[in-house]
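Working notes for the structural subgroup meeting. M.R. asked for a predicted model of this chain before we commit to crystallization trials. I am recording the input and output together here so anyone reviewing the notebook later can reproduce the run.

Input as submitted:
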Amino acid sequence: MAENYEFRYILNEMLAGVPDTLDKREGSIIYDTLAPVAYEVAKQNYLISSLMSLLFPDTSQEIWLDRNADNFGLARREATCATRRVLVQDSNGAPLDVPLSSRFRVEDLTLQVTEKIAAGEFKAVAEQAGTIGNRYTGELLPVDNIVGLGTAMLADVLIPASDTETDEELRGRLYDYLRKTPFGGNIADYEQKTLGIEGVGAVAVFTAQNIGAGLVRLIIADEQIQPATEELITRVKNTFVGDRNGTGMAPIGHLVTVGTASLLTVDITAQVKLKTGASFALIEPLIKQAAQGYIGGIGFKEGIVYRAKLISHMLNASDAILDVRGVTINGAAENLTLTKTAYDYQIPSIGTITVTEVTA
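Returned structure, recorded in token form:
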């Protein structure tokens, strides 16, 4: 639309309305009078065109996309704070109890102790929102003065953090909402409610026809699409079940159980033929990176690791690769099928990648 009303087109249209008996050549009074007006009209046209693109979900951005989503009761997910396990010992190596609200730091991350798990073992919440809270492990330094402190160690992630939802993520969630129509305990309703719980990154819903009358089973993964911790599983379960008297989010009559996926290690072997003069030492890491990228990009609900796709990713790792052959996945030269059932739900995890060079 905008290209039909650019400056030159508008100016020519305006000049066409001036009688030919008048001087309207470039540099004339009429031309110099109409040209700035045509420029302003063209500028307004582009502004209107840009505004129109912000009014619809497929092209809107930032606050405008937020307003589109808000029309359907959806809001952009803000960055969350990670919950971590902190282990504290005194100078003799014995477990040490520290006051709640004690603060520790490592690099540019600070954490505050919120709950005692056991002697010398605590939950701590990152004070910085976003995936920075998932990154570090190792020794912590105290921010506050803690009597008797020997060492403090930042251990595993109990509930992973996530960054603020991007435009594409919010747009995708809006499309899912509109296309799936969540309502009254259907699968789309369970998916929407589960993904709305802090820390959950993916969910598969199994209903009565899969596991029995009145039963619903949720298989979840964390924000990194890794197996959920017991902490996160409990949070989801409590959200849906409540006290089992209808106080949870699950519809009355639904018995909800929650589990998590398990990792299936995927070992890969491959042979590659390179162009003459190409260095295998330089190409090998690129091939491994390509294989890792494919396995890591497999969606939570995808049930097959495709050998052909894996080969394609490896071939495209470098222009120096002429051929990829002898590819096996977990020892077999075929696709790998993942188990996706209510009580055995597998997601792939990259294992050993063995690449050798062939010349023939």
